[in-house]
Amino acid sequence: MASSEYVEIRGLNETIRALQKIDVGFRRRLQREIRVLARTVQAATKEYAAKAGFDPPGQSGRGKGALIRNIRYSVRGTSALIRETAVRDGKFRYPAVFEYGHSHWGHRPFLEPTRKAMYEVVYRDIDRILREQLATFH
Q1: I need a surface site. Which of 6, 33, 78, 117 has the fewest CB within 10 A?
Q2: pLDDT band at residue 1, thresholds of 50, 70 and 90?
Q3: Higher-confidence residue: 125 or 17?
Q4: Residues contacting residue 43 through CB under 8 Å, at least 6 positions apart
Q5: Mean pLDDT for all residues in the chain
Q6: How far apart (Å, rounded) are the C-alpha atoms in residues 36 and 98?
Q7: Residue 42: other Cβ atoms inside 10 A
Q8: In 3-state terms, the chain is what percent helix, strand and coil (to 5)?
Q9: Quick check: helix, strand or coil at residue 93?
Q10: Which of 120, 103, 87, 99 is closest to 52 using CA atoms?
Q11: What tens digit of pLDDT does each residue of 20-63 get?
Q12: Long-range contact set of residues 66-75: C-beta below 8 Å, sequence gap at least 24
């Protein structure tokens, strides 16, 4: 499984379901805004990974940038996920080793620090997005 970190906003899904009953296009508009927010968090994650030494050639001098290149976002419904999908030799998911630590390779997390740094930004933007969308209901 790819490594990932979560920011959970309680009550959001229930609110979205209720508003969807009033306006069938609400969910689609909200998803579009969440996709923009996910791209912002993805970019911040790539920047943090580069600062952690994962940009080519990396600390080993052999890196090709696969870790940064494979930081992806996905949006399902009104949920967004930032994940790292890089694999080595077609099977070994090495980013998890750096994220969670290993006795040989050390501990160079990039997802968790980004989640912590972007936490307030995500909350603020979700609040802004909901306020903008709710303004259409007056």
Answers
A1: 6
A2: very low
A3: 125
A4: none
A5: 79
A6: 27
A7: 18
A8: 55, 10, 35
A9: coil
A10: 99
A11: 888 888 888 888 999 999 999 999 989 988 888 777 766 666 66
A12: 67/94, 67/95, 67/98, 70/95, 71/42, 71/45, 71/46, 72/42, 73/35, 73/38, 73/39, 73/41, 73/42, 74/38, 75/31, 75/34, 75/35, 75/38
> Under a CB-based contact definition with an 8 Å cutoff, are residues 94 and 86 in contact?
yes
Q: Where are the domains of the chain?
A: 12-135
- Which residues have CB under 8 Å from 100's CB, separation 6+? 3, 107, 109
Q: Is the pLDDT of residue 106 over 80?
A: no
**Locate tokens 């994650």: which residue?**
45
Question: What are the backbone angles phi and psi of residue 29, rounded to the nearest 5°?
Answer: -65, -40
- Which tokens in the block code for residue 111? 């997802």
